[in-house]
Amino acid sequence: MAASALRFYEARGLIRSVRTPAGHRRYERATARRVAFIVFAQRLGFTLEEIRAQLDRLPRDRVPTGEDWSRLSETWQARVEERIAELERLRAGLSECIGCGCLSLDRCSILNPDDRVAAHGPGPRYWLGDERPTVET
8 Cβ partners below 8 Å, 6+ apart? Predict the structure, then answer.
């Protein structure tokens, strides 16, 4: 991991270091686990604030155990499921526009004021989970 990343995490209170007399940073072994946790959590889409809140649940007076880490990961189940559903919606809509919800320039609410999906609000409505209307034939 780049030293700049470690300094960034430290500045945000996610990890701690000890300074040597020469001013070099030294990290405890447990910090490597915290850094791995941070990187993994970021890949899942957690913000640094959310990550800090999770890390604050770990003991400060001892090295976290496997049980401590397991307890943290239990809270991730719903978030992981949400992320999977979000990615599945994104995959389903890749051939469509991501801007307005109709996901097509020829049906866009900006270019096409009669766009019914735009009435549900701004953004990629189907991708955000809005139901697609059934088309009557």
Answer: none
How confident is the model over 15-33, as pLDDT tens digits? Answer: 989 999 998 999 988 888 8
Residues 6+ apart with CB under 8 A from 68: 58, 59
- pTM of structure: 0.60
> For residues 32 and 11, what is the distance between their CA atoms, to the nearest angstrom?
16
Give me 69's structure tokens. 């880490």
Query: What is the spatial distance between Cα 132 and Cα 103, in angstroms, rounded to a whole number?
Result: 12
Which of 29, 49, 75 represents a domain boundary (last residue)? 75
Residue partners of 57: CB distance under 8 A and separation at least 6: 71, 72
User: Does residue 83 fall inside a structural domain?
Assistant: no
